[in-house]
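[Discussion] Sanity-checking designs against the backbone

I'm trying to build intuition for which residues belong where. Below is a structure token string of 505 positions. I'd appreciate it if someone posts a full sequence so I can compare it with mine line by line.
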């Protein structure tokens, strides 16, 4: 048996698949001159001129073909060279349309990971103010709610997400001047209520993770005031926290812990603590730990006094589609106050969501995260850890920034903080790039390996209209996406509402 040779088909063979007659090879001579033989037209009218008067037939004068044509991309590209399909699956939040193909563009970072398009579900958003960055992020998280994805805005610095939550019937938690809300940075959260139902091995495992997170938080808060904690500081903090939480009583129950509790233990240790931490005497203990003791004391009496050093007075409804911590009232207290608040909220929200056993996907928005990372190396490590564990924790971390130099401002050039912060971009498979100036676009092109055409899209096409962005999933070709907002969304996402409401004098 001989196998028939296969190769590229001719144009006549391709047209024959559509029902077209073979092309005549010679003209027919007629009195009016040479002409091609009359053949049946491919698009011959098969319906009355004004269409059939039957439901579903409309006014089309030509009946649709019944044949379905299938071909390889090498063949179909030659027949229809201007048609281009979107490279992402049609699943997830419908963002807008791909301006190249004209088709709808959908986004679902978890599905992109499952289908091999991305290695992690994290997203980073870059864009100048006024380019539609905030409205795109808010529209994305709103539309992801249709798929059961719940959102936590871990620190709304400018109050941009508050209108959305109020539109959903949710009251955001406001921290700052005039607000009675208090949030204990060392809150046990669900750990306290679930403690009794866990076996001893599970108790030890969960408590070790929480204590480690608390030590990292306290060290980061100390570094925010210019003090670089030592290994001894961390060991003593761990011992103090274990005593305060009640571990020494045999894991029977857990006690509430606050930052003032820790600071008092360090400022006035008893003999048992001095012996347990292997200091020669009380004086050596006090002299060695005085810097971190004073750093924690400043949190109690400084610009954030009363916000994170008392028992929690709020109760988050984790069944709600979204929750937000509004920090807009803290901005008058300075950048450091906002950065410390972001660090406390980041640690607290991560601990609480990690202990949720609902199996649901959560979307965590971290706006202006570079403010938090400026506190020091431990703050950078905390963000880096959250991004690395996003797949295991079933979270979509969304970092919102203005330009790629934001994370590079967390420390001195060549420092460890800058090196780690720069590598954070590699932990975000999805990059959403709005309009930028030429200088910033050059930095993005270098950091994200953008092609010349993609870079031109950021400096040209994306600057022509609000809501345009280049969606780039790892090393694949970027998609030019124009977001489409409904009238209701335009009203909720209007970040210029305050400017319109202000009457000129």
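Best answer:
Here's mine. Compare freely.
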């Amino acid at each position: 048996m001989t196998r028939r040779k296969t190769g590229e088909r001719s144009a006549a063979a391709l047209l024959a698949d559509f029902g077209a007659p073979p092309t005549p090879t010679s003209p027919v001579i007629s009195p009016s001159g040479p002409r091609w033989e009359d053949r049946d037209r491919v698009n011959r009218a098969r319906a009355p001129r004004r269409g059939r008067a039957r439901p579903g037939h409309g006014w089309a004068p030509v009946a649709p073909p019944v044949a379905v044509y299938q071909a390889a991309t090498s063949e179909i590209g030659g027949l229809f060279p201007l048609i281009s399909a979107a490279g992402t699956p049609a699943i997830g939040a419908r963002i807008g349309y791909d301006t190249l193909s004209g088709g709808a563009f959908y986004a679902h970072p978890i599905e992109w990971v499952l289908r091999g398009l991305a290695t992690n579900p994290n997203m980073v958003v870059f864009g100048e103010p006024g380019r539609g960055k905030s409205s795109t992020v808010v529209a994305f998280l709103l539309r992801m709610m249709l798929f059961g994805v719940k959102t936590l805005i871990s620190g709304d610095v400018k109050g941009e997400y508050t209108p959305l939550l109020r539109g959903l019937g949710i009251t955001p938690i406001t921290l700052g001047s005039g607000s009675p809300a208090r949030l204990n940075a060392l809150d046990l959260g669900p750990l306290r209520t679930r403690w009794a139902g866990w076996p001893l091995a599970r108790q030890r495992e969960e408590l070790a993770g929480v204590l480690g997170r608390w030590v990292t938080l306290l060290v980061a808060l100390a570094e925010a005031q210019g003090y670089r904690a030592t290994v001894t500081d961390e060991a003593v903090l761990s011992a103090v926290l274990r005593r305060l939480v009640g571990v020494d009583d045999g894991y029977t129950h857990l006690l509430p812990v606050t930052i003032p509790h820790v600071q008092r233990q360090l400022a006035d240790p008893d003999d048992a603590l001095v012996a347990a931490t292997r200091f020669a005497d009380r004086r050596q203990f006090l002299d060695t730990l005085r810097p971190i003791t004073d750093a924690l004391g400043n949190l109690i009496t400084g610009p954030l006094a009363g916000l994170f050093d008392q028992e929690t007075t709020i109760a988050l409804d984790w069944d709600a589609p979204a929750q937000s911590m509004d920090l807009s009232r803290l901005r008058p207290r300075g950048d450091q106050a906002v950065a410390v608040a972001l660090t406390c909220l980041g640690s607290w929200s991560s601990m609480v969501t990690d202990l949720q056993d609902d199996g649901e996907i959560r979307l965590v928005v971290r706006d202006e995260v570079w403010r938090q990372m400026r506190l020091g190396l431990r703050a950078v490590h905390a963000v880096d850890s959250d991004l690395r564990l996003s797949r295991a924790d079933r979270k979509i971390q969304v970092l919102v920034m203005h330009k790629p130099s934001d994370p590079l401002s967390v420390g001195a050039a060549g420092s460890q903080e800058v090196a780690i912060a720069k590598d954070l971009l590699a932990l975000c498979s999805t990059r959403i790039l709005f309009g930028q100036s030429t200088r910033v676009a050059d930095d993005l092109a270098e950091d994200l390996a953008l092609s010349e055409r993609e870079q031109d899209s950021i400096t040209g096409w994306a600057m022509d209209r609000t809501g345009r962005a280049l969606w780039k999933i790892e090393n694949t070709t970027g998609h030019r996406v124009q977001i489409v907002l409904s009238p209701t969304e335009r009203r909720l996402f209007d970040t210029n509402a305050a400017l319109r409401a202000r009457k000129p004098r």
